[in-house]
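Here is a complete protein record:
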Amino acid sequence: MIKSFVEELTWRGMIHTVMPGVEEHLMNGMQSAYVGFDPTADSLHIGNLVPIMLLAHYQRCGHKPFALVGGATGMIGDPSGKSNERNLLDEKTLRHNQEAIKNQLAHFLDFESNTENAAVLVNNYDWMKDFSFLEFIRDVGKHITVNYMMAKDSVKNRISSDASEGMSFTEFTYQLVQGYDFLHLYRANNCSIQMGGSDQWGNITTGTELIRRISGGKGYAITCPLITKSDGSKFGKSEGGNVWLDPNRTSPYKFYQYWLNSSDDDAEKYIKIFTFLEANEINLLIKEHSETPHLRLLQKRLAEEITAMVHSKKELNNAIKASNILFGKSTSDDLKQLNEQTFLDVFDGVPQTQITKSDIDNGLDIIAALAEKGGFLKSNGEARRALKENSISVNKEKVKEDYKITNNDLINNKFVLLQRGKKNYFVLQII
């Protein structure tokens, strides 16, 4: 069944510009559309989630999505929104990155089914690698004037910027190469629509122009808004840089926390864009959240939906358990189930000190662990007072003065968590 794609995107706030005639074109039966992804890393990040969701909704509306990995354009660098040239990658690295990106896209798109609208991954390096420079400027370059290319915002902004060192010929030709991708997919796969962020409008319309001038056909463009945060900070960035989809770059716990920490305004916007929840359910969530904002229902549901989709239900449950270690009731067993990376993420910034394995082989006296050996508390006297007040925990469990830390207390054979009161933590790392 063909469902209205533009209608779906509109209520979700995911439309920036739609070329006239797109809706009528989409109602004529299944159509093919593509989005390009930059393969300069072996993981996408949450800044790529909007175009990914565009393709996912497109497929769910009964149309055929193409995900284009820009192996050729990744070797050049897109000037849109950038002030510097990018590093160029070799083919082996690009192929590795392509495979990693496909695995991530498969969480959102169905590449495997036998249905007519199964998703397809293509790499523009495959059709550009044997295209000689002379052929390209003869068969493609002659159809687009320099005046046309200079009028694009991505070029104008780069050339006129005071901070810019100008633009190389390589990057200047980027819009021609991307435009040719659209022409190639139009000819080879009957792909009639290109989608992307609003900063890609100039590159996309160069493609529609090539389709018109060279093939006498009609290509269409749809762009989505660039996501911003209500406080003015950049979406998709945390203190450690990009929030990646690869769990080895950004752990599921940190990924979950990023969404959980969204402001109320942002969560209301994000839950429409980054989940597949229907309008009725979202509106009900927004209403419940406005009545009990302290429960952060929107943020929790948003974080749950997107973490389960990107990572898995199991990783989501682990992230929730890890969150509860700091903010809820948890046990020593809960702590011991954390892998090393999640443990370090949860207690990021908590003071820690190193002790040796031999220190605990025969049992380390809790007073020594707190004061002399660990340095969590200033003196043995302070340690005794805290223990008498029943305010000291080892791995979330209260202990008395006669307690000894042993190998049985180790988390991942490496850590012991000390705690005074509810919020004062200290980590012993065993080396």
Summary: Residues 174-189 form the longest helix (16 residues). Residues 127 and 184 are 8 Å apart (CA to CA).
